[in-house]
Amino acid sequence: MRPGPRRSLSHAEILAAAFELLETKGFDAVSVRGVAGALGLTPTAMYTYYPNKDALLSGMVEQVLGRLEDQATDAAARPATTTAVPAPEGRRERVTALAGALRSQLVDRPGAVGLLLATPLDGPNARRFEERLLEAFADAGLDALAAGRAAHAVRVHVLGAVAFDAAETARTADGSQAADPASTVQREPAASATATLWDELEAFPLGDRSRGFADDATARFEWGLDRLLDGLFASSGAD
Amino acid sequence: MRPGPRRSLSHAEILAAAFELLETKGFDAVSVRGVAGALGLTPTAMYTYYPNKDALLSGMVEQVLGRLEDQATDAAARPATTTAVPAPEGRRERVTALAGALRSQLVDRPGAVGLLLATPLDGPNARRFEERLLEAFADAGLDALAAGRAAHAVRVHVLGAVAFDAAETARTADGSQAADPASTVQREPAASATATLWDELEAFPLGDRSRGFADDATARFEWGLDRLLDGLFASSGAD
DNA sequence: ACCTGAACACCGTTCAAGT
DNA sequence: ACCTGAACACCGTTCAAGT
């Protein structure tokens, strides 16, 4: 047996191991030591494939964006007629499909948001995604500056929304530490705005309308995106 | 001299040291060991003030949001008339002032975005900020659900935009590594969307309209926020 | 080109102990 | 209550060396 020490891994194999770690143990587990260990390598061997950890993460982001690309083209092609015409006024639908595909790609993959926020987002697939958005807004009549800003606003909304959702679910699904009911503060009820003596994290009554925040995350996202698109597409023709 | 070993620091002193570190050495330098060292403490002494690192970061976030609170009330009171009437249709201006205050608070403080993204955002000052946004949207006629989603969309836009800007400036202002001109790839020009062989980070021509992205970050933010608010405020009365 | 082993300078956190 | 010192189980990265 013993397949020999000269494995010569491919980037695809390394990224597969990295995603395996990301999905099973979370973003923090995606360390160069961690994926090296999962591949039966020494940490330093990783540096013959990627110059540093950021390059590894960028490679992962590119792969995520690549999968998204396929998914979005499928989704955009689906509701159109079977003729060759690419859905005349489907510009807004194209943006919605693109944004939704990115979001679903990220929420499917716990910890993937950290990836997108930790990395420059300048690879070929990232640029292709950007190009798709620009195209849709240019088709709608926005000039180059406005289209660039509109595409940026959409990216910001998707990534920001997923980051918020991830922070929320990370807090509620945190199994490592239970709430501590032994609260001993409560003094000074009306502190100034710049007060810093707040140190009991679980002492809040959790407000009025905070229930049902996790289950309608998708509806909340779509509603917000729709409002944003209302504003963005109106900025072309309504003057 | 020698003031004795029983210092008994206040939370304010600890947070001041933490912000000092954040501004001078960046987000990664804000470690419990780091701020302990800056205070002349042993790392373990920090655990008598905060149960863990997240609690420290939450304390910092609260202080940032507290400063923002004061700033936003000033800004909102400024453009109104000097009479006691709080600007009748200034709901949109209030949201703009709040969002702008949060953004400026974050861009002034390099690394502070990491804070907001790493922390649950559930402290008293965070809730007060949320309440202000809800108030403005409720005044505009949105029902509770829509107002909550609108407030969320604004938060998402501000934090997402600052996170993007931070990633951009971190890349351009990165003094530790220069671009490597010795590129040896270039083979396989039309790779599939799921290809993963992209490993030369600097090999891109940096596209068509990518110049002038950093200097108009504020204009881009304000434009996107304005479009979002167009959509959000239109969702109340236009049907 | 790919890989190992030792090392450097870090992390967050816990535990036993001192005052 | 506040603090120290030692320790555990990690990080990213570099360097010298082997094949």
TrEMBL record, chains A, B:
InterPro entries from the UniProt entry: Homeodomain-like_sf (IPR009057), HTH-type_TetR-like_transc_reg (IPR050109), HTH_TetR (IPR001647), Repressor_TetR_C (IPR004111), Tet_transcr_reg_TetR-rel_C_sf (IPR036271)
PROSITE patterns (alphabetical): HTH_TETR_2
SUPFAM superfamilies reported in the protein's UniProt record: Homeodomain-like, Tetracyclin repressor-like, C-terminal domain
DNA-binding region: 31-50
Keywords: DNA-binding, Transcription, Transcription regulation
Cross-referenced Gene3D superfamilies: Homeodomain-like (1.10.10.60), Tetracycline Repressor, domain 2 (1.10.357.10)
Keyword DNA-binding: yes
UniProt keyword annotation of Protein biosynthesis present: no
Domain HTH tetR-type: 8-68
Name this polypeptide is given: HTH tetR-type domain-containing protein
Organism placement in taxonomy: Bacteria, Bacillati, Actinomycetota, Actinomycetes, Micrococcales
